[in-house]
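A reminder before we start the practical. When you read a complex entry, don't treat the lines as separate problems. The point of joint prediction is that each chain is placed relative to the others, so the output describes one connected object in space. Small molecules and nucleic acid strands, if listed, are placed in the same frame. In the example below there are two entries. Take a minute to note the order of the lines before looking further.
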Amino acid sequence: MILDWLTYGAFFLVTAASFGIMALGLNVQWGQTGLFNVGVAGFAAVGAYASALLTAAPATGRVGGYELPIAIGWLGAVAASGVVAALIGAITLRLRADYLAITTFGIAIVIQLVAVNAEWLSGGPFGIAFIPRPFASLQEHALTFNLANLALASLVTCTVFIGLERLMRGPWGRVLRAIREDEAAAASLGKNARLYRLQAFVLGCMIVGLGGAMQAHAIGFIAPENYLSALTFQVWAMLIIGGAGNNRGALLGALAVWGLWSLSSALVSMLLPAGIQARAASLQLVLIGVLIATILLLRPRGLLGERLVVSRFLPQRKD
Amino acid sequence: MNLQFVVDGLLLGGLIGLGAIGVTLTYSILRFANFAHGEFITWGAYATLAVTGLIGWATGQQLGGAGPFSVGWTVLAAGLVAMLLTGLLALGLDTLLFARLRARGNAIIMVMASFGASMALRSLLEFVFTSEPKYFSRDIQIAIPLGAGVRVTADQLLMLAIAVVLVVAVHLIMTRTTIGRSMQAVSENPHLASVAGVDVDAVIRATWLAGGALACAAGIMSGITVQVRPFMGFDLLLPLFAAAILGGIGSVPGAMIGGLIVGLAESAAVPLVGGGFRAAVAFLLLIAVLLVKPAGLFGMRE
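Here is the predicted structure of the whole assembly.
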């Protein structure tokens, strides 16, 4: 019994970590740079599918299936979402801010359409199954297997977290925040705002793609319906609740929202008859929507707000 | 080439245009892209269904089609009530959410709030009505051949006529009445307009009422000619944005023409690329406009 709980707990944390990485990616864009990306689900899908195609076994009627190591798959995921992000960013980041919201909303819809309809590429509505899971050789011992996966997920999450913390406290992060707060002032110091925005957008999407790939390998199969706008909402809720601008907040938010989500799903499936479970699932989404709106109204800083740091060599500001 | 796509495209374009007018007005007057606008379309369609049911229950009459149409006068009456209700829904959402965020003056936070609101509104409908599609009428309409292989149903003609009437009405209101001119003034320069004595709050109320009512009309058109389901408005959101940007933000005729272009392009593309990729057409048009002429056909700013 306790072993079951430990096994489940480890799996829960692995999934939470993949959401946490997506929230970290979104934090580079929204928290640091003020870019509103409504296509999180799309970039997560690009990462997940890219990695799945590189690492899974070949299937008839579909490209890919190169059975490469998982690490190569994850690198491929990062590269693929980066390329898509660079294309979108180059077109929209020179325009007014909410055009980015509209185009990322659109690209996520198109990516989902491709996932459903382009069977030669994505396996169609049934998606891709048998995506290799890390440490598959340990699979017979459920607990060891899940703990090993948790160790890997923690390692990747910590690496991304520490890397971003260093980046954000260094000169590059300072320029991003300067552009966010006062673009004219930053430009007058010779900073190319558009280029920095593009860099932040692409970096953020690459991290989201990595999160998507990790999730695909943790679960073992992917389907287009995993990448509907509900996923975008979830990741946004994580960042806003945890505290935009704060990497710790992004991780805490991922843990809190995914915990709430799993708990309410478990309650729904335990307490309600099967007939109305699908309806109750839509109530979960109502809850997330209301939560986002309420936090924006009442506590825009989230649980852990942004800590204003000019440089890691200077004492922290008190406000 | 079969010209049937022209009829389908005009109808689709008409309803996209009606929705896009609301998007373009909120965008230019309140200065944010409202992601909850698609939900006004869906709520309008469900409100019409509900009010129609209420009228039928109150009068105890069997609901049948009037003349050659699949729907009767009750739907028309219910539609007018639902347009008012949807306008009030938009107004209520503004009071609860947008007005408070507007006071802080960060447009992108409003976009995000509208994103949250759209999720909540859509899922609430899904909870109440389930995702099962609903219909105004189960009657099968006989299409009238117009020649050249083109067929059109009486319902389609009626919907096109209603769209034309609504667009002309909006155009007259925007150009001939005080509130319409005030709306244009606020969209050009809110500070100057308020200094000149324009009641900005009244303009904001009128914008939400008009946007909600027109979205409801689009929802009824879509509901009668296709079906009513919780995602109908959300699926139209990308075409609405594409139409509003294509026409030029702030331009009412632009939104309508943009809507027709998007609708015709989607209908023309379906035989070529298959129905599955229909939504990608609006996205490609959007990208093309942003690359070539970001101000749109009739836009002034930027």
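Discuss with your neighbour: Chain A has a mean pLDDT of 88. What might explain this?
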